[in-house]
Design brief:
By secondary structure, the chain is of the alpha/beta class. Strands 5-4-1-6 form a 4-stranded parallel sheet, with helices on both faces. It has a two-stranded antiparallel ribbon with strand order 2-3. It has one domain: Alpha-Beta Complex (Spore Coat Polysaccharide Biosynthesis Protein SpsA, Chain A), CATH 3.90.550.
């Protein structure tokens, strides 16, 4: 089963400028989500969706793949759904599942939930085989 972690990281935050790359305990904020998704071992790919080449470079430094998003998905009114719909429509690979990992403040919880999800998926696979 192929799984994809998607981390939306728009550069145009009005409330807190450049919040996705602000330093939090020695790393950019988005690095916490990249690391949490990677460390679960659940995802074949961790993909950052961004409108900024600077953000893209940082994401790659932390081990993520990057897909640049268009202007419509970078506006103040674009929703996470809009970003996901566009990104999933442009992927060249097929995935069975995807997960939006856009809450870095919950990186510990994300890791725990991903491990639980993996356990449950394995248990379900054993029941059905």
């Amino acid at each position: 089963m192929k799984r994809l972690a998607i981390i939306p990281a728009r550069s145009g935050s009005k409330g807190l400028r450049n919040k996705n790359i602000i330093d939090l305990c020695g790393k950019p904020l988005m690095a916490w989500s990249i690391e949490a998704a990677t460390q679960t071992g659940l995802f074949e790919k961790v993909l950052v969706s961004t409108d900024s080449e600077h953000y893209a470079d940082i994401a790659r430094q932390w081990g993520a793949d990057v897909m640049m998003r268009g202007e419509a998905q970078s506006s103040d009114t674009a929703t996470t759904y809009d970003v996901m719909e566009d990104l999933l429509g442009r992927l060249t690979e097929n995935y069975d599942n995807f997960c939006s990992c856009n809450q870095p403040r919950h990186f510990v919880l994300q890791n725990m939930c991903a491990k639980l999800l993996n356990f449950l998926m394995l248990a379900l696979m054993n029941l059905t085989s």
